[in-house]
User: Fold these one by one.
Assistant:
Number 1:
Amino acid sequence: MTTRQGLADGALDVSMEAGVGVEEGKQFLRFSRLNRVLHALMIVSFISLALTGMTLKFSYTGWAAVLSRLFGGYETAGYVHRVAAVVMIGVFVAHLVDLVRRKNEEFGTWKALLTGPHTMLPTKKDLRDFLDSIKWFLGFGPRPHYGRWTYWEKFDYFAVFWGITVIGSTGMTLWFPEILTLVLPGWILNVATIIHSDEALLATGFIFTVHFFNTHLRPEKFPMDTVIFTGRMSLEEFRLDKPAEYEELVRRGTLAKHLVDPYPPVVIKGARAFGWLALAIGFSMVIWILYAMLFAYR
Amino acid sequence: MDHSPEALPRRVVVLVAACTLALAPTATVRSQENAECMLCHEDVTLVGERNGKAFSVYVNASEFATSVHADLECVACHLDLAGAELPHESPLPRAQCGTCHADEDTEHHASLHGQAIQRGDPLAPYCADCHGTHAVRRAHDRRSPVYPLNVAATCGRCHREGSPVQRQRRIHQTNILENYSESIHGEGLLKRGLVVSATCASCHTAHSILPHTDSRSSIARQNIAATCTQCHAEIEAVHEKVIQGELWEREEHVLPACVDCHQPHKLRRVFYTQGASDAQCLHCHERSDIVAASDRRSLTVSIEALSHSSHAKTTCSQCHTGVNPSHRRPCDTLTERVDCASCHAEAGQQYRESIHGKLLSRQDPNAPSCKECHGTHEVLPKSEPSSPSFPTNIPALCARCHREGNSAAVRYLGDERDVVEHYVESIHGKGLLKSGLTVTATCTDCHTAHRVLRTTEPTSSVNRENIPSTCGHCHHGIREQFAKSIHATASPETGHRPPVCSDCHSAHTITRADQDGFKLDIMQKCGRCHEKIAETYFDTYHGKVSQLGYTKTAKCYDCHGAHDILPVTNPLSHLHRDNVVQTCQKCHPGANRQFAGYLTHATHHDPEKYPWLFYTFWGMTALLVVTFVAGGLHTLLWIPRALRLRRARKEELEAERRKAAMPVSEAEEGSGTAEEKI
């Protein structure tokens, strides 16, 4: 650790002196390879679940029938839905396993991991950032110095925990109704249906609007932020977007440790294509859902 | 004869006031002796009155004395006057001939004449109408109306051309009396005085007169040979065997129906060979240029078509009745159109009752008569594939008028449009026309062939009330199931009329019940009456999948049954407590008692019935609203600020480019200030 830190310090000095422009080519690594893969799998499974699930929820609309046909019928759509559910649960479990691994390798104790500077748990700074953000939105203050994980990113993170629990448990109920009704009355299935589909509507709606805006559509990122696919962002962008983390790294002199070479353009192109596809499907679904809720609701 | 045919059956004697007045002041007398009766009835001026008409009740004592009943007392026939007070009550019932003539009475009762009496037909003949009243004589008495030489005249009173019976009742033969008197039997009897010659009663019997369609009738086809051979004994031994190159006796000593060659009432030597009259007709009608004087329509008869038709063995004059073979043009006496009903009596009767027949009787130009469907000389049985009434040809036959745009379809103003096109695409149409199944229902199977009636007619085969039995002709098993179902009877609570086959299956667009289109459509059909329950069904998984256009999940009939729908309280219902788990298990093999508690018609809009669903739904809705409002507001507030940030950074980038050569530290400072500015 110490030797690596020393090397990094040297690199940082160069960077600090030469400025961002001098450190041509080097980029800040924000997401690990595992997290990028998990997020990509999450996108694929989430969109699959949403598309197949919404055909049922909004079965009274024309688009749902067409979509269901595209999936090869409700049986195939149901199969896709369950496979995607297994993938998503796999992603969730993989993340938990990774947490355990990082606890063991990097932090030693759960306390260290959960109270460290990069914790996902809400902190006082998050509350302050939130209040400062509102002030900034209203023109009463400067943009807050956001850290590695902003409060809205933490909200999204825990939304997944909530969603997996609620949608996953009700989904299992509906997947294995014969087993469940051995212990619970049959009307539980009706309740589970409502919770499952409405919570899914919440997740879909939130991801495809608020999350999309927060990460991709806000003007400084528009039209797309590829950091979640490549894991890399330019140092300049990093400094502007996450000033607190940047300053922290500069202060501790460990910035260089997080600098890597950028991906070749073809990878970035691929990442963009994938991102665009996900965005396009997401926005389409928002339109379909709005149409169904506003014009065809029953 | 003394009385007109109209007056005869009305003979109910009512004593007139004159008689009553003459006797009234004296004490009432016991009526026992004929002499007592004659006290009044020998008066030639004595009249009775009925329906406002006076008629003589005079009894000719001298004629009575010569009658076969001369030795009988009046009360022997007028039984009800035995011991009655005189003057007797009116109206006087009929004389009871049956008291002595029991067999004849029974026969007469069962005959056409007796049936007419029972119907209350005012033209129906009683005993007295043929035999007379007080002057009844034996049949071999020349003065008797039933003496052979008089029979034709006696029967002819009613059965002559122009009589009320001939005009107002359905008598299929015309010119009966005329034809008979010209026939060899009539000629023998009336011109040559041969009393053994056949009279009406010889063939029709005296009392047991029945239509030829009745198998017991002496003139029923199978009995004709027996009837004729009463006189023409062993005719097969002396009859010319080969006529027109054909052996007329198909089986040895088994006679064919004599009337096939020898028309009833018209037996003439000239008809002895069948071809004779036809040859006479064909002499002109074989020519291809023969046309009617009135409308120039062709009158050519194709002997080729005729010889292959059902009527190959029927002579021209059997249908074209009224020809006179003694004329140079036998047809110049023709006055009437061909009446197929003279042989096809039942079909004719049905046709007359049908909408087609009624239109014809109104002389509607669009009305189809027999020949429109069956053709004329080329008529073929419906078993013949080239016949227009062969099953596979029927749709096209009816379509001539009932296809959209054609005469009948133009007049029809109901909802069943494009019936022909729809039928062809229906399961029946496909079965008939694509699969060539001649047992498939055609137009006539539902609408009948001859008794076609509007649906509004209560006796129509396609009237709502009759549809289950009409469909049940073929779908018997289904009808049995349906008859036991809740839909077979009207709801006692709501009084809603129950559905019939066509409400779910339609009339002309019937599809296979195992095809997706029908399976999906049927839910709408159930929903037409079961509106609420159908709506809530579509809120559940089953309904949603169905709505997407898939048929593998449970639809109405998968749980409730199709034709055997019963209330859940009925132990035979698929949804009865004892059966419901099994019903679920049809699709969900692992289903258990609690599984069956799934609410298949649940709705989250009913807090009374489904509080759990209602509050879950609104809880979730609240969660969604709160989350979206919070997230949305956060984002909306963010946008203007973020736009300004973007603009500031752009400007900063410009500035940086300008300062490209400047030291890094200064550029960095600049950017810092840009951030601060926002």
Note: Chain B has a mean pLDDT of 83.
Number 2:
Amino acid sequence: MSATRKLRGRGIAASWYGIARTATIDRAGAWAEIDDGGTGKIVTGVTEIGEGILTVLAQIAADEMGIKPDDVTIGDNDTARSPEAAHAGATRQTYMIGNSVALASRQARSVLFDEIADFWDVEVGTLKAFDGELWAANTNLKMSMSDAVATCKARGVVPLGSASFTAHGTGLDPVDGSGSPWQAYVFGTQIAEVEVDTYTGEIQVLGIWAAHDVGRAINPRGVEGQIEGGVVQGLGQALMEDYRTENGHTTTHGFAKYILPTSLDIPQINCTIIEDPDPLSPLQAKGIGEPALVPTAPAIMNAIYDAIGVRIKSLPATPEKILQALRDRDAAKRKEIA
Amino acid sequence: MPKLKLEMEVNGRKVSRETEPYKRLLDFLRDDLNLTGTKEGCGAGECGTCSVFVDGKLVKSCLMPAAKAAGATVETIEGMAKPGDLTPVQKAFHKTGASQCGYCIPGMVMAATSALRENPGAGIEEIKERLGGNICRCTGYTKIFEAVEIARDVIAGDLPETVLEEDAVQDTYIGANVRRLDAPSKVSGRLKYAADMKMHDMLQMQVLRSPHPHARIVSIDTCAAEAMEGVACVITSDDVPGKDGYGVFVHDQPTMATGKVRYVGEAVAAVAAEDLVTARRALAAIKVEYEELPGLFTPQDALKPGAPVIHDYAQDNLVKHIPVRKGDVAAGFEEADLILEDDFSTQQVEHAYLEPEAGIAYVDPDDVVVVISPSQNITHHRHMLAEIIDKPINKVRFIMSPVGGGFGGKEDMIYQGMLAIGAMKTHRPIQLNFTREESIIASAKRHPSKVHYKMGLTNAGRITAIEFSMLSDGGAYGMSSEGVMRKAAILSCGPYEVHNLKVDTTAVYTNNTPSGAFRTFGGMQAQFATESMMDMAAEALNMDPFEIRRVNMMKIGSRTHTQQELTTASLGRVMDAAQEASRWETGAPNVRGPLRGDLNGPDTRQPCTLGARFQGDGLDGGDKGKKENVA
């Protein structure tokens, strides 16, 4: 095998993205109850599409209520039973619904704390709760959240909260497009390392370094999962995925024709999570769902150029396209020499 | 049709059933035994969601006739652990966050279990090879690999079982790696997606789809289909009780084709029948007469004067044009030492969520029309459906079923209207499960794009002006095109402060499969062009690619392309982190790959040759693979 058959290179791409609905006001509502047994109940129109939002919301509610995430129940989205929290998209659920759940839970806690502070005859500001326990700072006063709820209810009060969170985007001017489409922005940068087989045109992506600002990582492992999934979808679009039609009829009917990344295509993905807190929301978190895949394809194309000096400007960079580009490059070189 | 008597052992229990002879093992498990943890993702053996063990061997149950499994020992995801318990593989999936939407996960757990049964010492390369027949669209596989390696080591006794437990938490749950609350239900196959749900007295719906990209519907004759035994109703656009039309930004799409069809795969009529086979037979009995119309298949053709008109309201075939203007572009190019001009394009992309579209509708005792579906936006769907079926909002109820992947592709209400109308006509629950082929032709794709780009820069790498124009094929219906064009325009020139720019993004109607929402919503198409241009400029100016980006990057106080002043901006920190993490060797991007010193580090994987990863059979090879991985 020729020493120059397989060539490696690296490329980078930077990116940016806006959080929540674009060029409009966005809103989300939630209800919260600190329930019997020191458990939590959250009702909101959230849509778990796989990103882990239910777990994120349970962490947020648990932290605000002073209980464990496992003890939080989140009702499924049901338009006749849940307050509106709008859609699963636009990288908005952690930002919009997360803050809404935080505020609703905080309100429920405040109701509970008022009753317990009165019951113990202490300043409400001295109360703390975490992981199922409630206590007054600098005292021996302590009880389980289960007892706290029972005490609160025995006094005739159900600890409830509700909240609506708003993100203030504005529309774009129809002539010059000016406007403030989002109140929170995130930035990302990815580096790709590739190996190009110049005989077959095949590209293997061997490494990705992905650094993304998420504001505040509620669940770092979940953030990594979003980055890894986004990178691999970006890789698919960069190298193989291609929905094709001929005169309106698809020629890629199934997964035998529509090629997707499998376990053998996966680079080592090295994630770096940056936390630049959002100053406009109580949680300070932003989002990661969509931004994760923006820089992947251009980073890979820049890496291919670094390796073999051909620039693919038309996705995907299939082996056929790479070989054609190499032939064109060599023909141009010969012409130069001639 | 005479029935077939099947006996086999399933999850340790003898089962004996009379069933239809055409059933696949997958159908027998799901429909006859209610073992719905085994999913149908493609029906063609290509995705692996239906993986089960037959006599100890991993098979794709969609490819095996049920009769072939007669007398065999079958294991499904439900049989992996005792009820309420999880195997080490399942616990490891829970621990690492290896399940996201969860639809591929039962099959993935079966494949991982098979890998470790075949070779308990399998190295990471062999594990990857053995998972190669199972597609996951959410996770990027990385956490799955981690889970299988942890499970391997726990089973072998090399790691204590405590590694599978939750990490301890100090004084806050914010920032903690809390294990996913929904993972146990996903790794065990217990979670019911819409296609897994059954209701008493439920009908099955099937949809007749357009074979033409653009045609006038002359007539639809449903008489023969309606007369068939077992058919409960046949519906067409004539059965829509209210004001028809849905879409994310413009309500230009009818529940079923009205007057004409605009793309191949568009719904024309639907049948609800006692069972799937009857519904499919009834579809074949519907007679539709079409008069073909000239079609438009490229956005360039759609904009030509005199082009065929696809929607009456849009005589110019324009879905949306978004302009963004800032500064003085001509003056900016005057200042430039270097002007680069080029063209870029991206393709249509399929979401390929592993769960095909599915749903159930019924009318409840209070006359509320209820739709259960894995939709990304049921709040908006109920507004649109209320108009379509002419009901007040509180008489329309949407319940979200677990979503087996969406990525934007489940924002469009492409089938819920048919289900609701069928339920209203029959007052029986109706279920519709798409096949993979149906999902691919009927659902929206990522917008393909063509970008013409002109960038001016000073010799110091400062961008002085950009002209950016994107033309995109919106396909037959508007769906999310308007929003996608808006986001593409807003983000177009990337995270750089550009004082003079002229940006135009345009989506047009054609007779291709519609384009719609897809993760990044136009952001990646635009920034692919920008980031390619940045590297081309860096090479021309002999600058490091990080350096040219730092010269131009947005900072606090910068004005975005839409002239919004930024009060936070983290790109500097993010680029520093990426540069450091990757051990980036500084230099211009001038094909220096072969000379680089930062390649092949410990944070890359080794390249592979297909089939070269099985290092012999048995423990020796496996240990070798494992050692290589450690080294």
Note: The two ends of chain B are 61 Å apart (CA to CA).
Number 3:
Amino acid sequence: MSRFWAISGLALRELWMSFRLLALVAVVTAASLPALLLPPAVVPDLAGAPPDRLTWFATLLAVALAVGGGVAGFSVGAERRRGSAGWLVSRALPRPTLLLAWFASVALVVAAGMVPAGVLAWVALDGPALVPGGPVAFGLVLASVFVTAALAVALGCLVGALLPPLPAALVAILLAGIPMAVAAIQHLALPAMPGSPLGVLATLDEAARPVSAALQAGGVALGLTAALLVLAALAFERADL
Amino acid sequence: MLDGLDLTVGVGTRLLVVSEPEGSASLLLRVLAGLARPSSGTLRLAGLARGDDSAAGWARRVSYAGSDQALYPWMSAREVLELALRLAGHEAEERDARMEAVVNRFHLRGELDQPFSRSGPQVAQRTLLAAALIGEPEIVLLDDPLRSLEPNERARLLHLPGKRRTLLLASRYPASEAGLVTRVALLRHGRLALDAPIEELERHGLPLSARGISALADLADTAAALAPPA
């Protein structure tokens, strides 16, 4: 376990020194900007009306979380290409430990961006009036969104184990971003859909039982994250470092 | 790049591996270090399979040093060596003693806490070799090491003590490995074309160079072709 913490610390420091940490926190935090800057919709349910602030928040968060997947893909690909992963593995570090450390580090950075984003959105959207269950319910919905973010990061780790850094980043952003953004824009909260916690977030003011829907969707995303991590570990195990 | 390669290296051998085309020798070392996966075949080093990641297993017995690009430029020599010791599972007291020994041997004290971006590639290369040797491994795999060092300094640092220590050294400049190796192997198009004592070169009046090694492999081929069938 001490190896995992040592490598997680190394990964976080590399993210910090390469400005990827700051950039990712800023991108995720910036998802709350429309909620802060746009005026509330006068008639939000009118057909053809522009998306309301909650939908904007969920959609931009989807894009930002996909960028998190891209950062994971780029990072794992870059570690392979530069030889840093090879050096660590030649020091008898198990490959899955290295991959898991990068997954945890990028996910932690995404979480660090989601906290201020959530607080800003809560304040700007007048959370107490918007969410029936109060801050706890809002926090639980955001937690399920974070599981979706972890899914995007796991996807990034998988493509990073297979592709060079830049293609890995682009593929991860596209593969993770499209379903999440569609769920947010189209207000899709189907539990089986990977990005549905964002659909729940986008409809937080209308849903009858948003927490239940978010937890269901989050559970599915958690299962998918675990499956993707296993696939990523298998791919990394066979990759040339 | 490697095909049907069958190579046995005895304990204590100092083997120089050269390849035509370049790159196969590096790949062989990367396969031996577990960084590249062969599509088939088996490899065992000192009776160990690569899967033995325990602190008492692979990490303490086999060591690999490749390109210094692998080290993060913001890291210092101290951080790299501490990480190497920690990953190898050494206890705190032992870590201090080993750190002290390699810092002295590789003249790293002056630049110990400077990031490599400031101290330069020479310090990074010395640190990489120091990290490879810090655990006193039985088998050392060196992929064209210490290229940016002055030749005498390089030869001094690569002169590894220990009669039972096995060294596999991949090099693009065989002449600079004189005095460091006892055998030479040539990989030609992925296959083993030569595995001979270094004295064989001298016996045939050939230099320790890529051309000389290649000529010795040709001579061995011709001799094998002319030999009467057993």
Note: The interface with chain A takes residues 30, 33-37, 53-55, 57-59, 63-64, 66-67, 69-72, 74, 83-84, 86-88, 128, 131 of chain B (CB under 8 Å).
Number 4:
Amino acid sequence: MAGLSISSVTKRFGDTEVLKGVTLDVADAEFVSLVGPSGCGKSTLLRIIAGLEDPTSGDIAIDGKGVTGTRAADRNLSMVFQSYALYPHLTVAENIAVPLRMRALTATQRLPLIGPFLPGAKEQRTEIALAVQKAADMLEIGALLDRKPGQLSGGQRQRVALGRALVREPAAFLLDEPLSNLDAKLRVQTRAEIAQLHRRLNATFIYVTHDQVEAMTMSDRIAVMMGGEILQCDAPSVIYEDPNDIRVAEFIGSPKINILPIEFANGELTLFGHVLGHANEAAQSGIYQLGLRPEALKLTQSEPVMTGTVAHMENLGSEVYAQVALADQTSRVTLRAAPAERHNLRLGAEVGLVFDLQDGLIFDADGTRQRRIEVAVTHVKEVA
Amino acid sequence: MAAIDASAAARAPREVNRQARTAWGLATPALALMFLILLVPVVVAGVLSFTNYSLGNSGFDWVGFKNYDRLFSRSTYEKMFIATFTYVAVVVPVSVALGLGAALLVNSLGRIGDVYKTIYFLPVMATLLAMAIVWEFMLHPTIGVINQTLELSCGTFLEVIPFLGNGCADGFPLWLGDRDYAIWVLCFIGIWQGFGFNMVLYLAGLTAVHRELYHAAEMDGAKSAWERFRLVTWPALGPTTVFVVTISCIRAFQVFDTVEAFWPQGGGPNKSTYVMMFAIFEKGVQQNLIGIGSAITMLFLVFVMFLTLIQRWLVERKVHY
């Protein structure tokens, strides 16, 4: 097991720049998710770490040793592919044994017919069989060892692919959207199992996904990628509560964060003409963007900051999401309400909304977080 | 409940009968055609192989197994079997291996691969009869381009190679006229003509190999091209290989036009290239000995049938996952 470091890696395919200088350090035994929309370069980055793709520039180091020029087979990494990539002609046991056979047995020992009778081959083969059995037991696929991949369900194939990855002790596990071919229920279950596996093996995991829920639930740290760059790499709670960039705030969180235009002028912060607070600090006047998570918005009967009509409702049982079309505005905001408040929310009902500015995230027009203004504004309000 | 069940039970057989009648009705044209153009001729050939019938004769005599007895006792037919099996045993493995090799090489190339694809496939498209005439010119003992090229080596250090040394001293082979060389020339032309077809079949098979499997093999530690071939490519090409081998075998058994073009009078020097198809043609058509021709045909059918059965068995058991 080992840590990994990626320094200013770029990758071009012809004229297209897929990665624009990515730097990331992964500690030993850490679970890092690379998350981002399709085409953001996360899979390319993983394949560069694996050695299946060469970076245009930049370096990869595993456990402090540079491996940029080393071929994939010599990097001692395990990978689980999106399509599982199981060998269709081999049984489950043989599939799991492949990485061990390729490394532990010599080319002649692997030969059919005569291979098993060569000196040393028998002991090696027994050891491999034991390791396969151990991996299969860990993933509860012991009963499937004699089957071919074609006879397995999607979830079972996924386990075999995991088994093939963990049968030896690699420096790190690379997982490329391993859950995307599973149905929703199985995905939730396997998600928990992979997280448990990570704790049990205490190994370094790099996990690529476009699903923010997977990233949030499993990772120690999330690296949010967009347009070939890592926008932010932090713990899930930090990424959710304290994003540096509006794109991170918008990508993480479901339903999406509400973005409202606010104006800062003459020491006053206004939303749709409604003064939210004052700031004595000489912050730059101008138009900013206010990000409000659905749970930051609250229903109110008196002194609402915004009013609107309920345009759409989603009742999830434990909570209710309502989309409110704001009065005089074309924008909609989503709010999360407790089931107890459901009687106030009917389609078409007039509702008043209020929020605490402390829960809001302020970004400038380019999407960069403006913590200075947040601090100044809330401070003034508390004093007032 | 019971009443409904009874009526349903009564209706069921009628329904089944009606469906069965429709099914037979729909299958009849195909069955009739198969019967007329496949089974009847085979049965007729089978019957005739026990007679001494000649085309034009009003009657024939039953001769029992005499025709078959001849096939296994006369030296002419022994040569026929030797020539046929030599041809099949050489042409099939070599053309399959070359086809696979060429497909792998062409597949690894980019755009230039298309050029090679065309070059290798040209002999397949060309009329073998016309090509045979070209080969005949090239193989001519004195004015042919092959022997003239070989003669260039005379007087150089290349003479240390026994074949060239002997050739310079005693003259180069007559090729088509030499009973030691004729069958190998025939095999060579068969391979040259056939492997492009196998290459195209293998190329089609290669497109079906999942790219990610190669990456998985690399991650699993398969470092050499040979290991990746063993682990990914070769198993994936299993179904293609069975098909290619079967097709190559049947085509090899059917070799005829080269022999007819080179040696229209009787199957090569000392009957060394007297292959089965040519024997059928010579006996059954040229000499109008329908009985013996039919007997060879039956044997030919047995071989091809045997090959097809092996293919079916392999396809069902081994190569599909």
Note: The two ends of chain B are 47 Å apart (CA to CA).
